[in-house]
Amino acid sequence: MVRVGIVGIGNIAAMFIQAIEYYRRLDSDVGLIHSVIDGYRVSDINIVYAIDISKDKVNRDIAEAIFAKPNIVPKLVDVEKLGVTVRMGRILDGVASHMVNDFQPTSLREPTLDEIVEELKSYNVDVLVNLLPVGSAEASRFYAKAAARAGTVFVNCIPEFIASDGYYCELFERSSTLILGDDIKGQLGSTVVHRALASLISMRGAEIVESYQLNVGGNTDFKNMLDQTRLASKKKSKTVAVASTQSKPEEILQNIFAGPSGYIPFLGNTKVSYIYIKAKGFLGLPVTMDLKLVVDDKAMASAILIDVVRLAAALKRRGIKGCPYWASAPYFKYPPKQARSDEEALLDLYIHLDKLDIDIEPKRLYMWDIYKSLSKTD
Ligand SMILES: NC(=O)c1ccc[n+]([C@@H]2O[C@H](COP(=O)([O-])OP(=O)(O)OC[C@H]3O[C@@H](n4cnc5c(N)ncnc54)[C@H](O)[C@@H]3O)[C@@H](O)[C@H]2O)c1
Fold it and tell me: How many domains is the chain partitioned into structurally?
């Protein structure tokens, strides 16, 4: 069993918790990236702890809180009460001034760091998932420190550079636990699709001249990101993810724009991405591509989380500490070290897990068979 705690019971949490229930009931693995990780199936994921600050969510069972406003994920499956009451968190910089009416923070007493550490220990939380709004720099670090002190794995889904910060790597190493992050990718989200095209261009000997990725959506995530002062790390995370596929990432960086580009309420959780790339190909001649991607943004993130929490628990079980870059690279936009492509990142993960004797099935890469047959002949 993987005992999961969640900080920020917003739309991703609402989709993730319903997804666990959906796959628990459905005897099928359709849509999952991996069915089994170290023996864990989706039905082995248990939510045991939850924190928010909203008056409509705190002190309610999480199965009810996920449908409280301003969340807009519809009811997809019946989720019975889980017996997990959402606890009050520390607000810090989690609520931007233009979001006060949306998130509606309560005036309940906020817990100290020591109290959160004690809660994580007493609820036996294996993995704490950070789903705070973009720009929650202080609040994210507060919960990361609590996780380190409690010996809990921290999964940082948001664009705050924590798993990629040497200070936190050492802190988690010293605490004999680990951190995965930063900024979760989607199953088929705009970053992974943009990166796939960019690495294809590189693999075929061409190079990107300029590119943009414009994203619009209609939930609190996009509304929160209207405040440009909260966006610096989001833009960096998305831009570097694309540039790192090229042979000279630092030279192309200023010609890549990737980031949130508008809040359109009627879109709800639907994210629309427009990806444009101009590349220089054979004889220096231009090649251009335009792509429109439409996804349910919260389903895309939840598909990755379903893998990541099981992976995190498996790594903890094997005594992995600090910031294992190879575990974060396939799943996060800004890992401690970027792979040149997502295939390379996944192959590297499979190789590391094989050495640790952690099963992960099904293997999604034909390259894996080639790698295995070559290692047998060596
Ligand atoms: N595909 C994706 O959706 C995707 C991809 C990458 C990263 N992310 C990031 O994941 C995060 C979560 O996304 P979401 O759509 O669930 O957000 P959301 O806006 O729906 O939910 C945020 C939640 O955090 C709570 N909160 C605010 N301050 C808090 C605090 N100090 N302590 C505890 N709770 C607090 C709010 O009350 C709200 O319930 C966002 O930062 C988003 O940008 C999402």
Answer: 2
